[in-house]
Amino acid sequence: MLEELEVRNLGPIRAAMLRPGKGMTAITGETGAGKSMLLSAVRMISGESAKVARIAPKAEKAWAQGVFDVDPNGVAAELVRDSGVLADDDEGDPDPDEAGHIELFLTRTVPASGRSRAVLCGHSVPRSVLGNVARELVTIHGQADQLRIASTARQREFLDMVADDDKELADYRAAWAALQEIDEHLSKLSGQEASARQRADYLRDSIKQINAVDPKPGEEQELKEKRSRIEHSTEIAKGVGSALSALDASQVDADSDSTGASDAITHAIQALRTIHAGEAFGEVADRLESLNADLSDIVFSLSNEVDEDVSDEGLDAINSRIHELDELTRRWGPELEDVIAWRDKAVFEVEDLDASPEKVDELRKERQAAFNKALKAARALDVKRKTAASDLAETVTRELKSLAMAGAKLEILVKPRDGAGTGTASATSASDTDVRRSATWPLDASGCDDIEFLFTPFPGSPRLPMGKSASGGELSRLMLALELSAAEKRSDSSASSDMTFIFDEVDAGVGGKAAVELGRRLARLAQSSQVIVVTHLAQVASWAGTQFVVAKGTAGKGSTVKPKAAKTEGESPMVETTVTEVTGEPRVHEIARMLSGSESETSLDHARELLDSSKL
Questions:
Q1: Where are the alpha helices (DSSP H) in 403-433?
Q2: Who contacts 275 (Cβ-Cβ below 8 Å, separation ≥6)?
Q3: Residue 595 C-beta-side C-alpha neighbours within 13 Å
Q4: Three-state SS at 225
Q5: Which of 288, 369, 465, 499 has its CA 20 to 30 A from that of 411?
Q6: What single-letter DSSP state applies at residue 55?
Q7: Is the peptide bond before 334 cis (omega within 30 degrees of 0)?
Q8: Do residues 606 and 595 lie in contact, with contact meaning Cβ atoms separated by under 8 Å?
Q9: What is the dihedral of CA 418, 423, 428, 434, to 10 degrees?
């Protein structure tokens, strides 16, 4: 519920603070006093487009803030958490009150020049976020706002809320999502265009080229190292030969009598082993033996290098192989491993693009099963909607009679689309037509039916869609009847609501006994939700638990702000609008003024009598 609405520099209102009651709150005042500016403030914090023309004269900016008391587990609080303003855990939430509720602050600033600023609980947010949250907190029924329910989507949303079909709706949405997923896959396989076929041809040719070369991971680097050795073979042979001659000449020339390093170390070891004067010489001999073993390994490795001989034909083969690998890396690289990975991925892609008849047929069978499941869920949803539509239309029509609209009638049509009747339907394949755009396709994201609210404002009038068949006042009363019916449903299901309903022009064309009944209906709605009504009728305002009076006055005379000093001598004081809560005798005087335009004793007595009788 709306706990507090504060407004600054909006139209004629320089500064105002409203604290509506939990039940019904009436906003009254003379025509032109500025009551509409309070609705403008609510629209501002609801994220609607800002109108610079509504900024108070000579003010730099208009500012409005609403403070809402909400259930921390409600939709509005969840939306605020999703926006990142509140934490996902309880530690990030504001401190709850005794009832366990939390406060949400919705703020909007509209400067005379520049962009407006939306703030949610102290954090700057996009205007759309503010609008999404406000949509769960406030519903305004003014002449312009009523037109929104003329849209099929809003009518369906309202009917689903009354039907309490959350389970059926969730089941259908899950089945619809599964059907869409299969449709997309099937469309990809069976609806290939020339570009897709060209892609498949390119992939097959590329795979063939890569497989013909048959690259191995790391092969290119090994070949380049081998080529380098061949190209430097003379230098390698000379160096290795010299090294072997120095280490072990027999490895180069078996008949050589030269003594190499290995023989010299062997002689040194033998000489040291002949010394028996201490352990030190034996330890040195051990070290030399270890050194000689390492030297033997080196000699063995170098001798293998001498034995390696590659012909010119071998070098040409290596160069040819490297060239083939370079061609692959140039086209699908940069590394050989990238080429191999690309080929493996291309193989799977070709399988999808080839779209074998068996695979398509299998997917079509899956699609038919998914379609039948979605259609069954849609029919269950349709049954719930039809039952709710009949009950709602009957209840609203009965309420309209009590709201001085005898003969008015609401009809709610829930019409299954072609192909959504009983029996098992056959789903047209995505390969033959785009089923999601076909006129004969019975399903969409909302189900298998079309919903339309038709209103007859008086006997003999044709049935016309809402928004085209009623005046602003009639639409306000129609919306009141709808909200009353929805409130009864919420009461029956013990569902709680954070919603605040604001009615404007609901009393247009109403008077006398019908006005009393209108006030009674608003008070009844206020038993389950917070209701704020802008009214000119005392018979409506008298039912409110809280009443505010909007009046024009000169700054400094009862205003909530201090008067501004005149810039020049003789300049008239600024006329501003004040917003004042009235209780007790001041409220009696306001009701009397609304009844007769005067505050005579007769009017005052009539006002007291009206207030006393306006109770449920």
A1: none
A2: 281
A3: 22
A4: helix
A5: 499
A6: B
A7: yes
A8: yes
A9: 40
List the structure tokens of 235: 């230098």
Q: Rounded to whole angstroms, how far apart are CA atoms 83 and 130? A: 10
Residue with tokens 């269950």: 380
Please determine, for residue 343, whether its predicted confidence score (pLDDT) is greater than 90: yes
Lookup result for tokens 């370079």: 326
Residues facing residue 16 across a β-bridge: 7
Give the Cβ contact number of residue 168 at 10 Å. 21
Place of tokens 């430097």: 232
Token readout for 565 is 């000093």
Inter-CA distances, 301 with 251, 309, 385, Å: 11, 15, 88
Q: How many CA atoms lie within 13 A of 563 on its CB side?
A: 14
Q: Is 493 helix (H, G, I), strand (E, B) or coil?
A: coil
412 close to 451: Cβ distance less than 8 angstroms: yes
Q: Is 65 helix (H, G, I), strand (E, B) or coil?
A: strand
- Does 468 have pLDDT greater than 60? yes
Amino acid at residue number 277? A
Query: Mean pLDDT across the stretch 373-396?
Result: 94
Q: Enter the tokens of residue 520.
A: 């009674």
CA distance 408 to 461: 9
* Tens digit of each residue's pLDDT (9 = 90 or more) over 423-456: 445 554 444 434 343 334 689 999 999 999 999 9
- pLDDT (tens digit, 9 = 90+) per residue, 347-366? 988 887 776 667 778 888 99
DSSP 436-454: TT-TT---BTTBSEEEEEE
